């Protein structure tokens, strides 16, 4: 006898893992309180009722996530929501019409690459699609922003760019965007990367894609595999979030952007004192409080917050930056997601435990629990 399937909804990965199919079926499950089952397959028991994070309804004075609203309200929030806050400027906002800040489209770079068009921008630069003259192969090339266009000190920005490239070239994994080279063109540093045909999770959700539990587990498995490769080198990514996770046309997940990654074997010498670096909505408490406390479990926390966003289209905290910081660091938030199994809810709760010692301690632990969850459905 087959066991009961614990998820609901239609997977966007079902048809040859093609990304781009918007689900037409909605979960009819009512929002429910996330509770740790006494028969939980996780090792940690439920904490006492007195220590349970309290639920706060969104008002002008409060800042935590309220009950999930109707699908209409959710859609309106997605349409009207601005980009997430930055505590430290890790992304330079450029209007799409002005994305070609270097005015190099159509130019030949270092007698190798023909710049075809700008395709994006991130924390430190503009990304262009380019074609290698001899190989006739397409690459993504990230150019460091013009020094007059950013608020960071010139030296710090260049050091971070070089650091990103030096860490990325050491990594080779099917779930990581590969970096091949770094060079300079007319005093502008650039980085040659693998070109991925696909879209980020953030882009997919903005287009109305619906990720159900089995989709999220698929993505988690592949991101966790990428994190294993990163962590084995002694690096912490520090910027796992929906806009840094791509899904290509074959459904393969790719993690990208090492702009603020940390090498645990080296002391942090780029971040200025009293500056929080990263995207707040996906940062762990220890990343907010001290760069010295960041560890592999910090990436696991960020991945849990990303999974929440995939399932709901919303961040798990709201309010101004100080309100968000208080909620994250105190653990005073409540996770409530309709249409997912209690077991998977427990996985997310443990990934996002405020105490990093109570989280999964490495990516392999999470993968093993997810495998047990999936085996139980067979």
TrEMBL record:
Gene3D superfamilies linked: Phosphorylase Kinase, domain 1, Transferase(Phosphotransferase) domain 1
SUPFAM superfamilies found in the cross-reference section: Protein kinase-like (PK-like)
Oxidoreductase listed as a keyword: no
GO molecular function: ATP binding; protein serine/threonine kinase activity
InterPro entries given in the database record: Kinase-like_dom_sf (IPR011009), Prot_kinase_dom (IPR000719), Protein_kinase_ATP_BS (IPR017441), Ser/Thr_kinase_AS (IPR008271)
Region (Disordered): 18-55
Keywords tagged on the record: ATP-binding, Kinase, Nucleotide-binding, Transferase
Segments of skewed composition (Basic and acidic residues): 43-52
Domain called Protein kinase: residue spans: 113-373
One Pfam family cited in the UniProt record for this chain: Pkinase
Residues annotated for ATP binding in this entry: 142
PANTHER family for this protein: MITOGEN-ACTIVATED PROTEIN KINASE KINASE KINASE 20-RELATED (PTHR43289), SERINE_THREONINE-PROTEIN KINASE NEKL-3 (PTHR43289:SF6)
Protein name per the record: Protein kinase
